[in-house]
Amino acid sequence: MRVLALGASGEYGKHAAKILASSNLVSEIIIAGRNLESAQKCAKEIGEKAKAVSVDISDHERLISLAGEADIIVNTAGPEFEVTLKTLRAAITAGTNYCDISADGPTIEQALGLDSAAKANDVTALLGIGMFPGLTNLLMMHAISQLDSADEVRSCFFLSASVLEDTNERLRQYRGTSLVGAAWQMIMKWPTPPFNIYRGGALTKVGSKAEEMKIAMPGNGDIPAVLVGSTETITMPRAVPELRDVHAFISWFPFQLNHHYAELGQKVNEGRMDLSKAALAFLDSIKIEFDRKQAVLPEYLGEFAIWAEAIGKKNGRSTRYSCWPASGWASTGTPLAVASLKILGGEIEKHGILAPESCLDPLPFFNEVARRVLKTDEPGKILNESWTN
């Protein structure tokens, strides 16, 4: 089978493409990008199954033509809020299956409107299967399954300034080219209104500034975090209609970064900054904190972490259940590759616009991702968990 890989020259895309190339299901990987030289370099690194072609995602007819020659589009190009709908529409028109790491809630809302068209063309389109969102959606579903009933579910992505050791290099690169990477544009889009959250059993618009709230971090108690416009708040209520509240958060350490992060999102919303300038300003703040060599949290989960918690009833008592990956297997490229292979192998038979929680069984999927990341057939303990009454 043939894979059309968009954005494969980037870190996540290249990692996913290597996994796909190792599968007997895949006969050829087409590395497609605007920069042919970068695509050729990536294809050479991936191996003999890969070939490079040039494509501009805005060239709809060219994209449809390439999609028509493939069995699936695997998309890591970005920023998602600019490219997801273009590539998804091309896939549907061509009748080609699709898988990506889309992380922008407002874009996913629009993509769900293409569900009927995807079904009519027998297209399976799985959106947002990376780490955050993706693994977080499945952690949420697992957390919900541990309770008799759940009213609220939350996910959080925690990042310490100490993990971003290449901040100086990123700043030099971005300022030298006047281009900020797609991943950082997406990071700054998350706290930028308007976006919808799910509260009180309905979608509610955040119109001016993202809220700063407290969330329970396993092993550390309540920490500050910023409510963001990730995709979980859009898709989770469709999978579990009885939920009253769905929240997705990011928390930065040192914690004073959270306030600055929300403020920058507000400035973008008000037109005082664009996403690139906001990203540079936030990277400057991270650099300052990194240079101060601030101590990390005691007993915390690592320099970055994801977790989910569900709040509801268990055996008639109010209960909070939290879970998070053990053994360092959480990643972005591997879940994308594993999900893409499930589509190619016919394990995901549903057609339409799908979210991870609508077509993937959490624990078996976690096990498969962990085996590939840890390179072992016996990954051991997959999840850590905690209960609070």
Provide structural commentary.
By secondary structure, the chain is of the alpha/beta class. The chain has 14 helices and 16 strands. The chain has helices at 11-21, 36-46, 60-68, 80-94, 105-112, 115-120, 135-145, 167-177, 182-189, 232-239, 256-269, 275-291, 333-344, 362-374; strands at residues 2-6, 28-33, 50-54, 72-75, 97-100, 124-126, 149-160, 195-199, 202-206, 212-217, 221-227, 245-253, 304-314, 317-325, 352-354, 383-388. The strands form three sheets. It has a seven-stranded parallel sheet with strand order 3-2-1-4-5-6-15, sandwiched between helices. The longest helix has 17 residues, at 275-291. The model has no long low-confidence stretch (mean pLDDT 92).
**If helices are DSSP runs of H or I spanning 4 or more residues, what is the number of helices?**
14
CATH architecture of the largest domain: 2-Layer Sandwich
Order of helices and strands: EHEHEHEHEHHEHEHHEEEEHEHHEEHEHE
Strand sequence of the main sheet, in spatial order?
3-2-1-4-5-6-15
Give the tally of β-strands: 16
- Summed over residues and divided by their number, the pLDDT gives a mean of 92
Rounded to the nearest angstrom, the distance between the terminal CA atoms is 50 Å
Sketch the major β-sheet: 7 strands, parallel
Oligomerization state: single chain
Number of structurally distinct domains: 2
What is the CATH first-level class name of the largest domain?
Alpha Beta
Helix content: 25-40%
CATH topology of the largest domain: Dihydrodipicolinate Reductase, domain 2
Tertiary shape: globular
Radius of gyration over all CA atoms, rounded = 20 Å
